[in-house]
């Protein structure tokens, strides 16, 4: 154990921090749209200085640094500490880019990686379907080869940013006769092709954070496949790995904890501050212990990655525990506000713009999305504890 | 930056674990639980040969000069084996004497702890929180009264006793006017003692560093060690539950293939793994005199109390009816985790201290 930074890393941390303090006023961040030019300029500046797309090769529009997980961590902490607007994060950057770099043709990499990193091309992810949620490989959207084009018919659901997206990376069934994992292919295509219809899906927060996407005879050139036909499941799994890494980040929980302490100091009932209530304080410290545990766990996982080792169980539990903890924190904040916490929308007396109720609900979505809590427990027990898989009830066919 | 055990630390755990597997199997624990104390002296001698007595004592006083981290790692092994082996009392005494003893006291006690010639029990309840009719009255160089749940006092040659203000005092276990008697508890894998003092002579730690800072660090080290004990015991219970679920068959398949059972096991592992990192962080911060060391010890102690309780119950349930029997012996781990939860401050008490430490409570 040694939690001291080397002088070189200390210097790096100071350089990042000073850069962010100096430049953060150039774009205040916040609610600006995905295509706001100030956002795009900020992203460009971050890439040029190595604080976004850091380890992606220069030829594909990245900064081209050697991987150094500790430096990446210091960068993330510097953004949190200085309050500078973080680099653009979306499914194109976190999922499509690594997938193309791993599986794409040279032309696909040249066409899409740099523009995606700069935030100029927005992507959505076409994986889940009404009949293919946790059982994703059960998907039925079909792609039939007709000359040099695939003809796509079917429906996707839970597609975030589908309305704004220029492009989609999509799982389709190209071989209905193959075993269910074997007949899937990974296609990338424009959202402007005729036959694509996007319908917003209003969720429990009252907003349409997701959409349904319908495909009717959508024609896609056959060279827009990533990997070989029938390899889509393997290609997609390399991106799911990246998505699970995004969820359950312990720095977010620490920031929430600090906000809740401020809230508890500010809110009063009969002139008593909530922080002076022994019952509420006990709940706070209980969650604080969990936040500290997840942070320490994060340091352990970082260390394992630095050494090129698997973090084992410490890595497998992050999505399950991290998302649950964030939900619990939002729940505590709601209880601290009591009835005032029920206020929602643009209304007098509202606290923190109603964000805690929103988070409490949205976090439940995160507990379900990206592999439900129950799927996570299957993964932990099977890969982490070596327990047997649930036996399959019948023949392994599509639609069964 | 490196957040991981060193090779030496991993070896220390492996060696301790294999010695305990030899000297402290469940049969030996049972013998000790039934009142045969010869089992525990064999274990203590084995640990002594490993050089585990007084791990934190500097080399100038004949110790190995290691840290609270190593003490916690050894304690984790003891918890894993529900072993009656003792290191907590002497470790805490060594930390306190090194911090607040005079040069004479250091030379008098530290080398003897390191060589295993003397062993300390500890009694801090007068400072942490005393129940009715168990108060101590310190009067100059003498002490009168009763204190309960002294730890590792039965085997001890000396006791380290704290007063209500946290000043620490050494007394000899064979001093005139001192009676140490065993308390009967649910946890029979260790001894807990009632100490009655009738005009017993004290040797107060006399350096100027005596006072809150020393007692707080000492108690915090004890809390980290108890958290580590629960960590080891809870890991044993998960391993036992997973092992059982992979073998036990019902409805024509092993019960470990049912999601209801798998998810219980996954929940246990998911709660325990971050707890391990928290215990490491607390031990490291405390021995580096980090500002957050005492706070982290409070968080580790209270968190492991909650996680341990959940695992003790869930692992027992995975074993079905067998978990409830004496035959399997799983109850020794269940009870040890239950005892650790209360010792040196239960979770509510410790969380309240954590709030104090952060200035969240108006003094």
Can you walk me through this structure?
The complex is a heterodimer of chains A (400) and B (363). Chain A contains 12 helices and 10 strands. Chain A has helices at residues 7-23, 37-49, 69-82, 91-103, 106-117, 232-246, 250-266, 278-306, 313-316, 318-337, 355-368, 373-384; strands spanning 123-126, 142-146, 149-157, 167-173, 184-190, 196-201, 210-221, 225-226, 268-269, 272-273. In chain A, the strands form 3 sheets. Chain A has a 4-stranded mixed sheet with strand order 1-4-5-8. The mean pLDDT of chain A is 91. In chain B, the strands form 3 sheets. Chain B has a 4-stranded mixed sheet. A 4-stranded antiparallel sheet of chain B has the order 2-3-7-6, with no helix packed on it. In chain B, strands 9-10 form a two-stranded antiparallel sheet.
Fold blueprint:
The complex is a heterodimer of chains A (400) and B (363).
Chain A: H1 7-23, H2 37-49, H3 69-82, H4 91-103, H5 106-117, E1 123-126, E2 142-146, E3 149-157, E4 167-173, E5 184-190, E6 196-201, E7 210-221, E8 225-226, H6 232-246, H7 250-266, E9 268-269, E10 272-273, H8 278-306, H9 313-316, H10 318-337, H11 355-368, H12 373-384
Parallel strand pairs in A: 1-4
Antiparallel strand pairs in A: 2-3, 3-7, 4-5, 5-8, 6-7, 9-10
Chain B: H1 7-23, H2 26-33, H3 38-49, H4 68-80, H5 88-100, H6 103-115, E1 120-123, H7 125-128, E2 136-139, E3 142-151, E4 158-162, E5 168-172, E6 178-182, E7 192-201, E8 203-204, H8 212-247, E9 249-250, E10 253-254, H9 259-287, H10 293-318, H11 330-342, H12 347-357
Parallel strand pairs in B: 1-4
Antiparallel strand pairs in B: 2-3, 3-7, 4-5, 5-8, 6-7, 9-10
Helix pairs in contact in B: 1-3, 1-4, 4-8, 5-6, 5-8, 8-9, 8-10, 8-11, 9-10, 10-11, 10-12
